[in-house]
UniProtKB/TrEMBL annotation:
<keyword id="KW-0808">Transferase</keyword>
<protein>
    <recommendedName>
        <fullName>Erythromycin biosynthesis protein CIII-like C-terminal domain-containing protein</fullName>
    </recommendedName>
</protein>
<dbReference type="GO" id="GO:0016906">
    <property type="term" value="F:sterol 3-beta-glucosyltransferase activity"/>
</dbReference>
<feature type="domain" description="Erythromycin biosynthesis protein CIII-like C-terminal">
    <location>
        <begin position="251"/>
        <end position="353"/>
    </location>
</feature>
<dbReference type="Pfam" id="PF06722">
    <property type="entry name" value="EryCIII-like_C"/>
</dbReference>
<dbReference type="InterPro" id="IPR050426">
    <property type="entry name" value="Glycosyltransferase_28"/>
</dbReference>
<dbReference type="InterPro" id="IPR010610">
    <property type="entry name" value="EryCIII-like_C"/>
</dbReference>
<dbReference type="InterPro" id="IPR002213">
    <property type="entry name" value="UDP_glucos_trans"/>
</dbReference>
Length: 389
């Protein structure tokens, strides 16, 4: 399948623009003016990339970030079909709250959930509306009223098939979704890519094979959302919390500023990991994980039956952290801005000591269920069915 480079790298924009740096300091979704400044040039790049890249396409797969832009690009291409594949729930429902609004995934009343979805849509739309309608006008398209179902109906003249690559065992498919909206399970990369661990890493695992080892890694969020000083502060805090619990740990330094981590050396209790390692190898060798709560990493930790503590930044990460807590798969998540030695020490004690047996039992149960969900196969079948129509 041919691919097209769209441009508009969000991670680079977060690091190099004034709006991106401001959001790094305070990633509030209510900072709509800052989000507009950040997203406007990206939207234009995405719009032009998709518009010229899909002219000969049979079908376009729309992600969460490309939904509004992609639908506009194919509105004048009636022969191009579309399917949405979302990494977390995007479709409004009364049964749970939208990712990105608050730290809880559910409200006490369904009407509060519905209200939160309206607020979420308004915020998302506000980031896109002005620039996208300007771009639509440039190709003689009318302005849009941005409501999820209304926009799909306006551009495609029919419902669009969607696949949310999320485990239905982490949150059930809402009964008020349309029949063409599916929760299919996660897509996980379980290929170890011929990975060969270093002798020093193997020595560390062999030395502590009779004890619990925690993996700590915040992935791309470390470089995208934290400045140099904040990175070092977090590293100091997590090291202190691990020491307070006498833990053995592998700490990923991927994403950290290299100038400050090159002098770190492995200790008896901590191994500093400076390379990316496949989850499919690493998670077989640890007892619990601490990470940022991205949808992929969250499902990977559960796929391997690991008790999980999430240190969340933005968007779906607090939502995923709350699903971990509600399903008794790990402690209550901690927003990254609230991570300190005391909070981390208490959460790690809960994760690895106080409630470890319960979290491990529940994680192993959901692991067996996730193995049978076949998210990639379901997506392929939905795409092939759409192409056959």
């Amino acid at each position: 399948i041919d691919t097209v480079e769209l441009g508009g790298d969000l991670e680079i924009a977060l690091k190099t623009t004034s709006a991106g740096i401001e959001l790094q300091r305070n990633p509030s979704i209510f900072k709509m003016g800052v989000f507009k400044r950040l997203f406007s040039p990206l939207i234009e790049e995405w719009f032009n990339g998709i518009r010229f890249g899909v002219k000969d396409a049979d079908l376009i797969v729309l992600s969460i970030g490309s939904l509004f832009v992609g639908l506009s690009c194919i509105e004048k291409c009636p022969n191009i079909k579309a399917i949405g594949i979302y990494t977390f729930p995007l479709i409004p429902t009364a049964e749970f709250s939208p990712p990105g609004i608050g730290e809880k995934s559910v409200s006490l009343l369904n009407c509060i959930n519905s209200l939160k979805w309206k607020v979420s849509e308004y915020i998302n739309i506000s980031c896109y509306r002005e620039k996208l309608n300007e771009l639509r006008s440039s190709i003689n398209l009318p302005p849009l009223t941005f409501n999820y179902y209304q926009m799909i109906q306006a551009t495609m003249k029919k419902p669009m098939t969607t696949a949310t690559i999320y485990s239905k065992h982490l949150i059930a498919r809402p009964t008020d979704w349309q029949e063409n909206d599916h929760i299919v399970g996660p897509i996980l990369d379980e290929d170890q890519h011929n990975f060969e661990p270093s002798p020093t890493l193997l020595d560390f695992f062999n030395k502590w094979k009779s004890e619990k080892i925690i993996f700590v890694g915040l992935g791309s969020m470390m470089g995208a959302m934290l400045g140099n000083n904040e990175q070092i502060q977090f590293l100091n805090n997590i090291q202190a919390a691990l020491k307070n619990n006498n833990c053995k740990a592998v700490i990923s330094l991927v994403g950290y500023q290299q100038t400050d981590i090159n002098n770190l050396s492995n200790t008896d209790n901590i191994f500093y990991l400076k390379q990316i390692i496949p989850h499919s190898w690493l998670f077989l060798n640890v007892s619990a994980v601490i990470h940022h709560g991205g949808a992929g990493t969250t499902h990977a930790s559960l796929r391997y039956g690991l008790p999980t503590l999430i240190l969340s930044f933005v968007v779906d990460q607090p939502f995923n952290g709350d699903r971990i807590f509600i399903n008794k798969l790990g402690p209550r998540h901690i927003p990254m801005a609230k991570t300190n030695v005391k909070n981390l020490t208490n959460a790690i004690h809960d994760l690895i000591n106080r409630n470890y047996s319960m979290y491990q039992m529940n994680a192993k149960k959901i692991s067996e269920l996730i193995k049978n969900e076949d998210g990639i196969g379901q997506c392929v079948r939905l795409i092939e069915a759409e192409l056959a129509k």
